[in-house]
Amino acid sequence: MEMKACNFVLFSCLVVVSFLVSSSSAQTCLSQTFPNNMQYANCTDLPVLNSYLHWTYNQSDGTVEIAFRRTNSTSSQWSAWGINPSGPRMVGTQALVALVNSSGVAQAFTTSIDSFAPSMQQTDLSFPVPSLSATFDNNEITIFAVLIIPQNLTSTSQVWQEGEVSNGQIQPHSTSGDNVQSTASINFLTGQ
Ligand SMILES: *[C@@H]1O[C@H](CO)[C@@H](O)[C@H](O)[C@H]1NC(C)=O
Ligand SMILES: *[C@@H]1O[C@H](CO)[C@@H](O)[C@H](O)[C@H]1NC(C)=O
Ligand SMILES: *[C@@H]1O[C@H](CO)[C@@H](O)[C@H](O)[C@H]1NC(C)=O
Ligand SMILES: *[C@@H]1O[C@H](CO)[C@@H](O)[C@H](O)[C@H]1NC(C)=O
Ligand SMILES: *[C@@H]1O[C@H](CO)[C@@H](O)[C@H](O)[C@H]1NC(C)=O
């Protein structure tokens, strides 16, 4: 009897331990899927704003295939992701922006964030972006892009953001809470 109780306690103990270990290391991004069975070599759960970055880096030609996804979005929100060669901050970000436009279709464009009150109009980035699109499904917005980055941007800063769209116009994002925590470093080569 005692042995059984002990084994049972040990068993539940092991179950709890393995659950804690697996839940602390489980990345949400690993279970995310894409149209046409598109797969990426690396992904990371970004720490705030329900955001996830997936990418495949090809060192021989400097291309990075990106899928940036933000869950729990709405059709009246814009989302953006970019890299900032000048550091983990807003100004300088080479951004990809997506929103659901007045046709009800997800649309993406590039813009270089040159000030704290950026125009959010389409501009070229400091590197080529040969492919760019977005989807909006099940309250998830996903930006798909191919970037061609110089060698010195394989380890850099990434910045992401979200805000409201009103009458087709991008509104400024919140300047508190998670919206001012949304930066991280990224190394496209090592996945760290
Ligand atoms: C990486 O790029 C090179 C040059 O474009 C290409 O030959 C190669 O197939 C690419 N590698 C992968 C894994 O796509
Ligand atoms: C989803 O978004 C709504 C409204 O923006 C917010 O109230 C809610 O807390 C969010 N849920 C999660 C899980 O982030
Ligand atoms: C990266 O190298 C390019 C030249 O290839 C240079 O113009 C740019 O300033 C460099 N960027 C950084 C962040 O070092
Ligand atoms: C909405 O976006 C789609 C996809 O980019 C585009 O074809 C369409 O012209 C856009 N509609 C408007 C009103 O801008
Ligand atoms: C990122 O992808 C590369 C190429 O498939 C792989 O070797 C590496 O282990 C991945 N890194 C992480 C942290 O997943």
UniProtKB/TrEMBL annotation:
InterPro entries: AIR12_DOMON, DOMON_domain. Residues 164-184 are annotated as: Disordered. Residues 49-163 form the DOMON domain. It is found in: Membrane. PROSITE patterns: DOMON. Keywords: Electron transport, Membrane, Signal, Transport. CDD domains: DOMON_CIL1_like. Residues 1-26 form the signal peptide. The keyword Aminoacyl-tRNA synthetase does not apply. PANTHER family: CYTOCHROME B561 AND DOMON DOMAIN-CONTAINING PROTEIN. This is DOMON domain-containing protein. It comes from Hibiscus sabdariffa. The lineage of its organism: Eukaryota, Viridiplantae, Streptophyta, Embryophyta, Tracheophyta.
